[in-house]
Design brief:
- By secondary structure, the protein is mainly alpha-helical.
- It has a domain of 73 residues: Nucleotidyltransferase, domain 5 (2-Layer Sandwich).
- Helix content is 42%, strand content 0%.
- The chain contains five helices and no strands.
- The longest helix has 15 residues.
- The protein is elongated, with a radius of gyration of 20 Å.
Length: 113
């Protein structure tokens, strides 16, 4: 099960009575949201990463030689690491297939075009 973290609830708990929308929180923490001309999931997600860090107590700048945005961190050149292969047994394979069969209209079965 995926865990969701509600930054609005965190913000309201930390700053009761204050606005808790994305723009207001960015302003409170002096986070540049100038790329947010219109609603966009990627831009909002990048801003929420910055907000979440601030809500948890802020960046520990002594750990970083330079300030990097989430987007810059995501695009850092890293060495290639070959995938590791793990053997699975027949029961695990069967359970996995049963799980896949429960997914309605899976994307991997759709044809493009």
């Amino acid at each position: 099960m995926q865990e969701a973290i509600d930054t609005v609830a965190l913000s309201r708990k930390k700053f009761p009575g204050q606005p808790a929308n994305l723009d207001a929180i960015c302003k409170r923490f002096n986070i540049d949201n100038s790329k947010r001309v219109k609603h966009g999931a990627l831009v909002d997600a990048e801003l929420l990463v910055e907000i979440y860090i601030e809500l948890l107590g802020g960046r520990q700048n002594e750990l970083f030689k330079e300030e990097l945005t989430f987007s810059e961190i995501a695009h850092i050149d890293r060495p290639f690491r070959a995938p590791r292969h793990f053997a699975i047994n027949e029961n695990e394979l069967k359970e996995h297939q049963e799980f896949l069969n429960e997914i309605k209209d899976p994307l991997w079965l759709k044809t493009s075009g």
